[in-house]
């Protein structure tokens, strides 16, 4: 079982990743930390609390508010998510967020669980960078850092060069990649290939008629509608994919060691993730610093997630 912190900019698929952390038998979710990203920050906090409540875990997992802006740049809202909760009103959650800052909470928990705590980062990496600024030894105290971010040298979802999480705060992403964490990356490239669910698959989830399936279907609707407006046939699930692979590694069919660098200087290629797969050293002689997931059991991922949505709420 993995002890987890999930660092999130809570919109729909982030909430689905939280469901993995909250409900999967191999996940021991210790905290949720909120970072500036997809939608309005206050709404992101509320969305995380709603998800905890809908999963029947109210009061059991603390939520910590973190960075409300990227390190050096203005915040950029994502356009695919509506308000991140399906544009509907859910019952007011009973739980309230904690008073301590997310970066401080990450450092505190890492010191309390040295080597026995993993982080799942599914938003911009601002909170992780701030935690690093508080404790430069943090990479030695965290077991694994799993990141949803970047593209495998392919077209992004914000620009032709960049995926949203790395685009929003490229300085934070590059800082994290340069400081020695045991990093695994799940990319937007993999999401489009293996974690985009069709109307038929989404219909099968609706037909479950469980409370969790209803929650999923409502939150997922704006994502699907936006995707179809830009030519993506279905809804995309990068964050929940990353969460599921973390707790079910048997779903990973192929991965590779890479040198990953994030572009911070160019306006044209801001947030571009250079993922170098070659085993020969480049001129700069830098070693590999990440494992990148190349291929997964796509049907297995969908099936495992449907199983979670089929389960009764405690």
Can you give a write-up of this model?
The chain is of the alpha/beta class and 314 residues long. It has a single domain (2-310), classed as Inosine-uridine Nucleoside N-ribohydrolase, Chain A (Alpha-Beta Complex). It has helices at 12-23, 41-54, 102-112, 126-134, 138-141, 164-168, 170-177, 188-194, 199-206, 211-229, 238-247, 298-310, and strands at residues 2-8, 27-34, 63-65, 118-121, 145-148, 183-186, 196-197, 235-236, 252-262, 273-276, 290-296. The strands form two sheets. It has a nine-stranded mixed beta sheet with strand order 3-2-1-4-5-6-11-9-10, with helices on both faces. It has a two-stranded antiparallel sheet with strand order 7-8. Strand 1 (2-8), helix 1 (12-23) and strand 2 form a beta-alpha-beta unit. Helix 1 (12-23) packs parallel to helix 11 (238-247) and helix 3 packs across helix 4. It starts with a strand and ends with a helix.
Strand content: 15-25%
Main beta sheet strand tally, sense and closure: 9 strands, mixed
Secondary structural class: alpha/beta
What is the name of the CATH topology? Answer: Inosine-uridine Nucleoside N-ribohydrolase, Chain A
CATH first level: Alpha Beta
Q: Can you list the strand order of the major beta sheet?
A: 3-2-1-4-5-6-11-9-10
- Quote the distance from N terminus to C terminus: 19 Å
Radius of gyration: 18 Å
CATH fourth-tier homologous superfamily: Ribonucleoside hydrolase-like
In CATH, the architecture is Alpha-Beta Complex
According to DSSP, the number of beta strands is 11
Characterize the overall form: globular
* Count of individual helical segments: 12
């Amino acid at each position: 079982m993995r002890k987890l912190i999930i660092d999130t900019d809570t919109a729909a698929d982030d909430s689905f990743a939280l469901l993995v952390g909250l409900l999967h038998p191999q996940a021991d979710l210790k905290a949720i930390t909120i970072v500036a990203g997809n939608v309005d920050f206050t709404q992101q906090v509320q969305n995380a609390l709603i998800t905890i409540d809908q999963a029947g875990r109210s009061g059991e997992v603390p939520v910590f508010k973190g960075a409300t802006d990227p390190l050096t740049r203005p915040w950029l809202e994502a356009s695919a998510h509506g308000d991140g909760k399906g544009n509907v009103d859910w019952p007011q959650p009973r739980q309230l967020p904690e008073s301590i800052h997310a970066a401080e909470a990450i450092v505190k928990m890492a010191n309390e669980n040295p080597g026995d705590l993993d982080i799942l980062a599914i938003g911009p990496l601002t909170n992780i960078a701030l935690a690093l600024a508080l404790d430069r030894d943090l990479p030695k105290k965290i077991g694994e850092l799993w990141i949803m971010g970047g593209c495998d040298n392919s077209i992004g979802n914000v620009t032709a060069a960049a995926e949203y999480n790395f685009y929003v705060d490229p300085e934070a992403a590059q800082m994290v990649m340069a400081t020695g964490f045991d990093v695994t990356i799940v990319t937007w490239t993999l999401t489009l290939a293996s974690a985009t669910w069709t109307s038929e698959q989404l219909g099968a989830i609706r037909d479950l008629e469980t409370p969790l399936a209803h929650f999923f279907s409502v939150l997922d609707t704006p994502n699907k509608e936006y995707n179809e407006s830009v030519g993506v046939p279905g809804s995309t699930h990068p964050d929940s994919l990353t969460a599921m692979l973390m707790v079910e590694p048997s779903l990973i069919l192929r991965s590779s060691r890479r040198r990953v660098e994030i572009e911070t200087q160019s306006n044209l290629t801001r947030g571009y993730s250079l993922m170098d797969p070659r085993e020969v050293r480049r001129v700069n002689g830098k070693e590999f610093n990440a494992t990148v997931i190349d291929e997964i059991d796509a049907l297995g991922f969908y099936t495992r997630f449907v199983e979670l949505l089929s389960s009764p709420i405690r």
